[in-house]
Write a structure and sequence with these properties.
single chain; mainly alpha; 2 helices
Length: 45
């Protein structure tokens, strides 16, 4: 009985992800150079 409930839950999760994906590209891509890049490119006097 419990395995049937788990399978149903997983199936519903897959169907929901297919219909309305939760992937948001803005969460995964950098928006610009970070502090390490600025530190590397700092002019040495």
């Amino acid at each position: 009985m419990m395995t049937m409930i788990i399978q149903l839950r997983d199936t519903l999760r897959v169907v929901r992800e297919f219909i309305a994906p939760s992937y948001r590209p803005e969460r995964h891509y950098m928006r610009g150079p970070g502090p390490a890049c600025a530190q590397r490119n700092q002019v040495q006097a």
